User: What shape does this take?
Amino acid sequence: MRDHIPVVVQGSGRRVRRVGLAGVLWAAAELTVTVGVVVLLLVVHQVWWTNRQAVAAAQEQVRELESDWARAPDGPEEPTDPVASAPSGDEESVSSPSPKVSATVPARAPAAKPPARDQAYAVLRIPRLGLTVPVAQGIDKRAVLDKGYAGQYPGTARPGEQGNFALAGHRNTHGEPFRYINRLRAGDELIVEVRGQRYTYVVGKVLGETTERDTGVIAPVPRSLVKPDYGYSEPGAYITLTTCTPEYTSKYRLVVWGTLRS
Assistant: This one.
């Protein structure tokens, strides 16, 4: 009988280790791909889907306002006393000081029946941009801006009045109504419609970049506190649009000013 001679296979331990390492690397690669897909879906939802939802809802709100005005054209409807609506703060807006209402004489008839806070009460049209967007009282992110609306800074003038009718809006995501306001030029029209009234402002000046705490840009006579060469020095009826800059960041604010056409 032959003796059984054991055969020793060298290197089997290394192969096992290599197989084990390959499995770990493969699992890590699968996890990385999965995480990447999830992140991509989140980005698509945030950038694309929220835009579609907000734009559709905002346009429906515009149609509802216009329908209401057509049924009951009984005078202007504008926001409540802006002192009652304190800002919640948002990355698209300028940090507001405690609101103070100055004794100014309205350029047009005052409000007849004010709407509730956060309620859309006007429509902003910018022909150059093909933009039509509802305007609501306040700059609360969830209640106003994330709906694709432009929000009026509390404490600022009502449409058509002496003072500064100041608005904030998203530049990216959630309808991004103010995405292209950097394209506005002197002479472009900014049209604000309220029940029974139409106010046409004309773009006069653009401030390409300032800080979020530059409250001078929404003052009754708007002038930058950071860049005093930008702004106005005489009382008048102004409109201000503010949003973030550069795009997809909230580091600075972009500002567009206009004056009411007499």
Remarks:
- Strands lie at 120-126, 131-137, 150-152, 163-168, 189-194, 197-210, 237-245, 252-260.
- Residues 77-88, 98-106 have pLDDT under 50 and may be disordered.
